[in-house]
Amino acid sequence: MSDSLRIEREGDVAIFTLSREDRLNALTPGLLVELREGLEAAVADGARALVLTGAGRAFSSGADLQADGVDALSPDLGETLASSYNPLARTLAELPVPLVAAVNGPAVGAGMGFALAGDIVVADRSAYFLLAFANIGLVPDAGATWMVASSVGRARAMEMALLGEKISAEAAQAMGLIARVVDDGTALAEAKAIAARLAAGPSLALGLIRKQVLHALDNSFAASLELEAAHQTKAGFTDDFQEAVTAFREKRKPEFKGR
Predict the structure, then answer these.
(1) What pLDDT digit, counting tens, does each position of 179-214 carry?
(2) At CA 61, angle to CA 58 and CA 214, rounded to 5?
(3) For the segment 84-105, what is each residue's pLDDT rounded down to a tens digit?
(4) 102, 132, 174, 251: which one has the fewest Cβ atoms less than 10 Å from its Cβ?
């Protein structure tokens, strides 16, 4: 773990904090690789829910355009995306456990894309979202094109991407871009509480649910029915489902183990 990323464990919840406060948590290829490897290690170590946030007054200001050395952007920006941004985006999408994002300040450019990768996104009231790419002659990346268009539709996605204007947390919630807006300074606490609740749930089923929702956004109703049936077969053979049935019969709350 480097100074750019802080990883903590609270029970079955792993918390990842982007910690380049002096650069408003600007993203470098090295940081993205470290984050991806940290997420994979946390899942392998048994984490049942994850939280992603930023240190200080920003979630992330986007790509670090001033980084040098090994963390400098390649002259071919597509190469940088292929080697660090896209692998992280895919890892976030394919996580077998829920991810909660705590947006504690500006989420800009690729930072916005990664914030929206959260299954549940909680934002401080003063936070904002900004697809800043067009303002510097670039195009959205880090999955932001898909995330935004899938959430708010073509008209709003075009407006946000082409004009590059700030979207307040409350406006983002109203248009269906994020789930919750909370008082300033409380997004992380709220995200941790949600993650703890998810971590105590039927982990395998929750992982299948997140896959079903992503699948539904790109596939037909008929295809969704098929995947639901396949996933229900898997869920029906889990220990957690059997525990739920037993608990129902015994008139008590189930105690899920994530198995």
Answers:
(1) 999 999 999 999 999 999 999 999 999 999 999 999
(2) 95
(3) 999 999 999 999 999 999 999 9
(4) 251
